[in-house]
Every structure is written in C-alpha cells, then in structure tokens.
C-alpha cells in the first residue's frame, strides 16, 4: 500500500501505523493460551488505541480469549474495547 494511505489513517485516527505493524508482528508467534501473553497484548492495544482498560474488562477479555476459544486479532480486541 502507498505511504500516503497510512499517513491519512494516522491523521484521522491518531494511531501510529508503525505501532500497528509492530503489534501485528508480535501476534504472529504469540501463545494465546498464556494469560500473561494475552494480558500484554490487551494492554498494548489499549495503549495504541488510547482507550484505558479497567482490570475488570481486562479480566473478561482474557477469560474470553483463553477459556472461550475466541480468536485473538486486532478487530476482536478493538470490538471488545468498544463494548466497555
């Protein structure tokens, strides 16, 4: 994709695309059955999105991902954060 496209997204959302790409790369080999890994990803997404996550919401996200077999991708986490 063209660099202008990403700059436009950054301008509209305030989210640094490098952060998004770094997050995506870190997800590739992550163990999503490990609670610490899942918590780390949730916290990172929260930072990138500039949406604080309460301990209660974080616990629910972790439980949903680890115990309920939800797939973990950026859209899943973003949608869960928006429901809080």
TrEMBL record:
<protein>
    <submittedName>
        <fullName>Sporulation protein</fullName>
    </submittedName>
</protein>
<dbReference type="Pfam" id="PF14069">
    <property type="entry name" value="SpoVIF"/>
</dbReference>
<dbReference type="InterPro" id="IPR025942">
    <property type="entry name" value="SpoVIF"/>
</dbReference>
